Amino acid sequence: MPSHGHGGEIGLVPTGRQSLVTVADAARSIGPVPNIVPRDIAGAFAPATRRAYRTCWENWMNWCGERGKDALRATPADVAQYLRERAERGDKMGTIRKRLAAIAQVRRLAAVTLDRDAPELHYALKALAREYGVAPKGKAELMLADIEAMLEVLKGDTLAAIRDRALLLTGFAGGFRRSELAALDVPDLEFRRDGLVIIVRRSKGDQEGRGQLVAIVYGRRERTCPVRAIKRWLDVSGLTQGPLFRPMRHGGRIVGDNRLSDRAIYDVVKGTARSAGLDATRIGAHSLRIGHVTQALANGADPLAAKAQLRHAKLETTLGYDRRQATLKGSSSAKLGL
Fold first, then answer.
1. What is the pLDDT of residues 155-200, one digit of tens each?
2. Do domains 13-132 and 144-326 have the same CATH topology?
3. Residue 298 phi/psi, 5° resolution?
């Protein structure tokens, strides 16, 4: 494929080992040009999605180049063979599906649609799922008892301890993703008589940025109350604008207007869990979100209320977070008389 300039923002279609061009440029080289400009394309995808698609597409291009095939016109059978080879090399099914999505999306943008329902591709994917698919382990849940143990580790009046208590309790009570916690600003908080409403301005489930509201009520105990924990954090930090959660220096001072990264939030959760004596192998920031569902449902919450709190589009996604089926408590095997 000939090169057509230095490329644009999205940069998905490689024309050689080093250079990249835009999808619109690629389309010009093969036929009709879609009525879309690179800036519009880039704005339609989250940055992480663009990076993932670019990596997957480059790998697909290399595979096709080694076999003398055109990546934009390869047949469904070619794609099926590529995916099988990737599975044989150790790719998990989630990665296989991501590669297929990247190939299909780039070709769609270049007006060369891949028929994902073609039998040779559709049934090949089902065969791969049967042969290589395994039940994902995912993150473990953090239950209320675990949160209480972690709060014990964070006792004290240091600025870092107060921040981390607010972070843990907000993440658990709100069912937030770590990226959402990292993106919160002080003006996103609205304190009310019976609790707190937080505006999530953009999230994985709200790519268009319409905004979503998350309500958190006052806890029955001061030590585990998320609303009081956030108020305390704001009082001692003096924050009135900008990022809600911020990094600190070793001396306990807040680092300017910087935002605590989602990776740092992961480290806080995992590190505190480890310090509390919990098995941190499968614990991360997402464990707060999983724990919210598991604990709420165990305490009799309506599954639809948990779905609304986590802002899932489908109830089955929320129910998939319920880890109670992995515990011995309530197992029907106890009723067999063995």
1. 989 999 999 999 999 999 999 999 999 999 999 999 999 999 999 9
2. no
3. -65, -30
CATH topology of domain 144-326: hpI Integrase; Chain A (1.10.443)
The CATH code that applies to domain 13-132 is 1.10.150.130
**String of b and e for 267-294 (b: at least 16 CB within 10 Å)?**
ebbbebbeebebebeebbbbbbbbbbbb
Q: Mean pLDDT of all residues in the chain? A: 83
153-173: buried (b, 16+ CB within 10 Å) or exposed (e) per residue? bbeeeebbbbbbbbbbbbbbb
Q: Residues 6 or more apart from 82 whose CB is under 8 A from it?
A: 60, 63, 64, 99
Q: Cα separation of 10 and 24, whole Å?
A: 10
171: part of which helix (H) or strand (E)? helix 159-174
Res. 104 pLDDT band, cuts 50 70 90: very high
Please choose, from the candidates 207, 182, 333, 187, the residue with its C-alpha nearest in 3D space to the C-alpha of residue 259. 182
Task: Indicate the domain borders of the chain.
Answer: 13-132, 144-326
Give residue for tokens 């993440």: 171
Which pLDDT tens digit goes with each residue over 20-63?
A: 344 444 443 333 333 333 455 556 667 777 788 888 999 999 99
Q: How far apart are CA 256 and CA 291, in angstroms?
A: 32
Tell me how far CA of residue 42 lies from CA of 51, 55, 58, 141, 150, in angstroms. Answer: 11, 15, 17, 35, 41
